[in-house]
Amino acid sequence: MHIRKYGFDYGRRHFLRQQALGAATAGVLTPLWPLIASAGDVSKAYPDELLSIDAHTKGRLKAGDTVTADNVDIVKHLLDPVVLKQVKEMGRRIKLVPSTTDVTRLYPHEYLEATLRNQGKAVLDKDGNVFTRDGKPWIGGNPFPNGKDALELFSNLTLSWGRHDSSIYAVRDWEIGPDGNAAYQYDFVWVEENTAARTGAGGPYLKGEEDKLRYQSVFFASPTDVKGTSYLNTWYYDQRKLPELVGYLPAFKRVRKFPANQRFEPLVAGMALYLSDAWAAGDPMLTWGNYKVVGRGPFLGAVSQNWYGDHPNWERPVHGGPKNQTFFDTHMELCPEVVVIEAEPVGFPRAPVGKKRVWIDVRNMMYVAYVTYDRRGEVFKSFEPQYSLYEKGNQRVMDGAHTAWSWTAVQCHSVQDNRMSRFVQAKGVTGGYTSGYNRADLREKYLTEQAIQRMGT
Prior knowledge:
By secondary structure, the chain is of the alpha+beta class. Helix content is about 15%, strand content about 35%. The chain has eight helices and 26 strands. It has a 16-stranded mixed sheet that branches. Strand 7 (about 210-220) and strand 8 form a beta hairpin. It is globular. It holds the Pfam family DUF1329. It comes from Aquincola agrisoli. This is DUF1329 domain-containing protein.
């Protein structure tokens, strides 16, 4: 007979007390981050009910089971409203897997090492920007691994999107219409390189670029009618400033400058993805405001076992919707503690979005769900990521000396017109582009105005 030291409802009551007191320390039985720093294991920070879906549901669901319309009400409090709708009304299924207690499986190795090395060195200045205690731009890793308020927590998302110094993602995308058919299929490439907050051997900054945070480009490789369409964002370190946004449109045969606040429009026809959606932090942090913590507790997130390295080109099975093409097969686990943040687009008076809500897993401070609401307060879109270590069976992708960690897929559901953008980080796409991390030559190849013009022509 197993005797519980803590009652079944201990975790829920703890989170309610924290919310009432305005407290924000991660962990239930003991503070989380010191435990991570000393052992890398989170199991002593939480009672059984927050580490096991079996314990949490009192045996009604367990790892290996599938959440369907027939049983989703058991875990509806662990899902965002869009996922709940997808399962209840659209035939989506979710496979449950065990909760991850080893945090080394939730980070790129160098990023976790930088977070440990630099803990306690970050501050927010009077404007809300992140600096070291001696006034320099951030030096790598999560600046606030145990963030105390909404802005500190959100800065963990903003300063390093993919948590590598540089990344190139070969992306295969399908646009699923309300009738369940694939209306468009795109191959595109997303490239990002941090100029500050770097974790590699070259130091935290690119020389001469300390006033910037990142360069980011996206360009389309197929089909023919959009091939060459390219955009380049240059982000400033000051999060009050909008990025410089330029693009190459094949019809105009030149690079042109776009309004920097033009961030709430589809990148190409039929696509639900906006620049603003990227990493739930696609705009400079301080162009949004009224940040607040609105919830804390367990949640189901797609944070492990979501790499399909045994499938051709890392693609994956689909199911659900009118034609069984709308959703990717997805593995989710019980995340023991997720903090929920809301913010409003104060820098974008004409944005169709009235607020966003972001669910952040405190184990690695990465978002696991993101939902936007329109100006009337109705659900507008969701942007749901999947993550994984890139290992499965004898298949493995290396990031230097360590197994790679990254996002593997995204489902972006425009709820009001019922369109789905779903895309994977593929092994490769049209044109010979392949996914990878911390490559040395990305800047000149993909992240200058000359580069996007060259790719377009």
